[in-house]
Design a protein that fits this description.
Helices cover 72% and strands 0% of the residues. With 92 residues, it is mainly α.
C-alpha cells in the first residue's frame, strides 16, 4: 500500500496547502515509503537493516525513533537468546 496516494497529493495541491508547496508530494511519498518498508521489515522480525531516511525534519525524527526501537529490540532479543542458551546448558 502506498501512502499518501497520488490522488491525495493532487487534492492537497489543488487546495493550495502551504505544507505541500514547500515540500513536494513525491519526496513525502518516498520518505513515507522508506519508513513503511523499514517498519514492515521489523514487523517480520528482520532487525538487521538500519532504517535510513535522509531528512532533517519530522520524517528524519521519526526514522531516528524507529532506529532506536530497532537497536533496543535487537539488544533485548540478544539478551533473551543468551539467557535461553544459559538456561538450556544448566538443564543438561
Amino acid at each position: 500500500m502506498m501512502w499518501p496516494s497520488p490522488r491525495l497529493c493532487r487534492t492537497v495541491r489543488r487546495n493550495g496547502a502551504r505544507f505541500d508547496s514547500a515540500f513536494p508530494c513525491g519526496r513525502r511519498m518516498r520518505r513515507i515509503g522508506q519508513l513503511v518498508a523499514g517498519t514492515q521489515a521489523y514487523a517480520k522480525g528482520s532487525y538487521n537493516a538500519p532504517l535510513r531516511v535522509d531528512a532533517h525534519d519530522e520524517f528524519g525524527y521519526l526514522a531516528h525513533a524507529f532506529e532506536q526501537m530497532r537497536t533496543s529490540l535487537q539488544r533485548h532479543l540478544t539478551g533473551l537468546e543468551e539467557a535461553n542458551r544459559r538456561l538450556y546448558q544448566t538443564q543438561r
